[in-house]
């Protein structure tokens, strides 16, 4: 019925009743459809004059609760990073540096094996520009970003930002014109294409082939999300380990006895010991403040992504480890300790402070490597993390002195100094050695040299921890070890623990994920066998390398055959008469990987995906450009240029949602087979299995 016929019909009946009912019907339908279109971020923009012809473009987003938007500094190989593009830049304005970000968080993602950086609650992005066209009226910009909760949405926002009328922009030469003019004027050959960055300037590290990439600027580096409490706890444990080394442990009874004997009363002895402990804490906290002051709150974080920094720190850790293993001692000049001792003889609070300083200097051969490692690890998180790290370390170091001064009777319960102290030092040496290869691996990843691929890294760790196991069992002795007739029970247990850990590492050579150490080795794709030995891992393999696969098919997660083109998948489904499962996913979709790793791998689900459906995975963040003849403009005016654009438009127009993961089971004509839930997203294994069986059952 066309509109004219409908209009004539309702005139002959109860016009008002039917019109209202029809209006309510369409309103409800419209509301239902559009309720699925999720927009968790509300953006605003503005421009502020800075100085001269410079201005700052500010984008501010309000993010719904529990959602987060990934930063432009999120590494490649992880979730989709935010991108900013300026559409009318040429001839109108030039960008000044990279866009700066407001407060962000950082957290390690064990699915992708990278640190993801994201906004929560609020997002703020600032881009400084230099306006070169005095007649410029607007700045046109676009944000492409990914926002996630239990599902992920790839979204974009276009801005047209008006230049205020009182801006008074004067025509000025472009940066390139200034440089050219300057070159001619002074007669210098300036290579404007190459510039060596300083430590305070942008350090850019690019990693390709799905390996983490980070672009960091000292002024724009986002805040870390690793909690200060966790940094304190790790540093506290490190301080406790340093306490059990031969440089520090024997000092406890000696120092406490000195305070108790030299003090005129027990109360004064306790007070002096407390001052001594607080002095130790003050010394290390001041060290943390100095590091933060010299390098800046975030500079070490930027350096941590640099090739040379990682190589230098690898060498330093090798030196520390070699020292701990007994090859030589790392000591500060003796004159420093002598001067501190002389000042300690002055007595009073100043004397106690210098006693603490003398302890720090004398024990440096044991504490120095631990402190150095902690400072870099803590400083790489930015902010006051170095101070918090040193507070945790020094607290563990100081507490025993204060405790035993308050309760000197417990001194007799301390174990006697002996060979076990050197054992602690050697164990720390092995741990430093293993940690060193993490930094060498970082440098190798950045340069894409493939010298230290995942299998090689794991093999090195197996060798290190196997050697540690043999040492703990007494099969290997090192220079400063005491002769022993037997090993202690504690040493036996520790040896068994390292043996179990070594055996745990071995399957990693054949593609096991090794989730316990996922933050350390290179990601699975950076290996000789990215899909595990025999191609059975979680990667994908081209159809050209697997015999018997139909045209356009690949082996996907867990060996499931998958198509990445809708038409190819539908054609094959019609050929074998099986239902189709559409998987709207993304390369950077965290929860898509979680569903694949945790739900698809379930023994009740995996056989169904392998045998009972034709899986078509459509990546909405696929940036490959479509052939010109397949590019088009939607009714809403959106340009469909990339493969990902095509699948995003398909998902929105067909299923009225823009979230991933999104799963749909259809028949051979594209009709939904699930009546209760036509589509499903991030759910439990039981719910997913029930949904699968319902859809397949309806097809049959």
Automatic annotation (TrEMBL):
Domain (Cytochrome C biogenesis protein transmembrane): residue spans on this chain: 232-441
Compartments where found: Membrane
Record organism: Flavobacterium hungaricum
Membrane topology annotation: Multi-pass membrane protein
Name by which UniProt lists this protein: DUF255 domain-containing protein
Chief site of localization: membrane
Transmembrane domains' residue ranges: 231-252, 273-295, 307-328, 349-371, 383-407, 419-437, 457-478, 490-510
Keywords for the protein's UniProt record, in alphabetical order: Cytochrome c-type biogenesis, Membrane, Transmembrane, Transmembrane helix
Superkingdom of origin organism: Bacteria
Domain Thiol:disulfide interchange protein DsbD N-terminal stretches: 49-160
Keyword tRNA-binding: no
A Pfam family hit: DsbD_N
């Amino acid at each position: 019925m066309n509109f004219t016929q409908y209009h004539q019909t309702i005139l002959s009946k109860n016009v008002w009743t039917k019109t209202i009912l029809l209006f309510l019907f369409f309103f409800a339908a419209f509301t239902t459809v559009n309720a699925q279109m999720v927009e968790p971020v509300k953006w605003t923009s503005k421009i502020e004059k800075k100085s001269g012809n410079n201005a700052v473009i500010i984008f501010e987003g309000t993010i719904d609760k529990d959602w987060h938007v990934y930063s432009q500094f999120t590494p490649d190989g992880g979730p989709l990073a935010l991108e900013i593009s300026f559409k009318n830049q040429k001839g109108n304005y030039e960008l000044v540096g990279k866009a700066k970000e407001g407060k962000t968080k950082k957290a390690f993602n064990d699915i992708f094996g990278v640190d993801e950086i994201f906004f929560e609650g609020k997002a703020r992005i600032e881009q400084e520009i230099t306006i070169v066209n005095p007649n410029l009226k607007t700045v046109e910009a676009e944000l492409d970003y990914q926002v996630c909760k239990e599902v992920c949405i790839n979204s974009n926002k276009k801005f047209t930002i008006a230049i205020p009328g009182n801006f008074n922009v004067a025509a000025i030469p472009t940066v390139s014109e200034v440089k050219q003019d300057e070159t001619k004027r002074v007669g210098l050959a300036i290579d404007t294409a190459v510039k060596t960055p300083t430590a305070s300037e942008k350090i850019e590290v690019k990693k390709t082939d799905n390996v983490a990439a980070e672009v960091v600027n000292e002024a724009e580096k986002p805040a870390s999300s690793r909690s200060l409490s966790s940094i304190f706890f790790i540093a506290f444990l490190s301080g406790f380990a340093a306490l059990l080394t031969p440089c520090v442990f024997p000092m406890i009874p000696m120092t406490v006895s000195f305070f108790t004997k030299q003090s005129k009363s027990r109360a004064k002895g306790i007070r002096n010991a407390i001052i001594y402990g607080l002095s130790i804490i003050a010394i290390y906290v001041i060290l943390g403040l100095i590091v933060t002051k010299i390098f800046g709150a975030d500079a070490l974080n930027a350096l941590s992504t640099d090739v040379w920094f990682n190589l230098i720190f690898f060498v330093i850790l090798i030196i520390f480890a070699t020292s701990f293993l007994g090859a030589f001692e790392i000591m500060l000049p003796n004159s420093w300790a002598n001067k501190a001792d002389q000042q300690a003889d002055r007595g009073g609070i100043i004397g106690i402070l210098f006693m603490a300083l003398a302890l720090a200097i004398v024990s440096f051969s044991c504490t120095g490597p631990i402190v150095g490692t902690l400072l870099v690890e803590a400083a790489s998180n930015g902010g006051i993390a170095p101070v918090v790290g040193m507070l945790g370390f020094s607290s563990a170091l100081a507490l025993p002195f204060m405790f035993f001064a308050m309760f000197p009777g417990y001194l007799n319960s301390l174990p006697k100094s002996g060979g076990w102290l050197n054992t602690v030092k050697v164990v720390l040496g092995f741990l430093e050695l293993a940690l060193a290869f993490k930094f060498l691996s970082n440098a190798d990843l950045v340069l894409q040299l493939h010298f230290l691929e995942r299998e090689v890294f794991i093999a090195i760790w197996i060798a290190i921890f196997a050697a540690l196991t043999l040492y703990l069992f007494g099969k290997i002795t090192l220079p400063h070890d005491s002769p022993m007739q037997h090993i202690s029970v504690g040493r036996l247990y520790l040896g068994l623990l390292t043996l179990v850990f070594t055996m745990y590492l071995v399957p990693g050579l054949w593609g096991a994920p090794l989730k316990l150490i996922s933050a350390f080795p290179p990601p699975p794709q950076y290996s000789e066998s990215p899909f595990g030995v025999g191609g059975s891992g979680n990667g994908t393999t081209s159809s050209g390398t697997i015999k018997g696969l139909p045209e356009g098919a690949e082996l996907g997660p867990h060996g499931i055959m998958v198509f990445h083109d809708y038409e190819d998948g539908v054609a094959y489904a019609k050929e074998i008469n099986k239902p189709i499962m559409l998987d709207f996913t993304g390369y950077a979709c965290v929860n898509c990987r979680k569903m694949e790793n945790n739900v698809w791998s379930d023994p009740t689900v995996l056989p169904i995906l392998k045998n009972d459906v034709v899986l078509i995975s459509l990546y909405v963040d696929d940036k490959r450009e479509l052939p010109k003849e397949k590019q088009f403009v939607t009714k809403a005016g959106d340009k469909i240029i990339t493969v990902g654009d095509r699948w995003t438009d398909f998902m929105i127009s067909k299923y009225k949602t823009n979230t991933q993961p999104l799963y749909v089971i259809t028949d051979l004509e594209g009709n939904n087979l699930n009546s209760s839930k036509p589509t499903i997203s991030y759910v439990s294994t039981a719910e997913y299995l029930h949904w699968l069986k319902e859809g397949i059952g309806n097809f049959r």
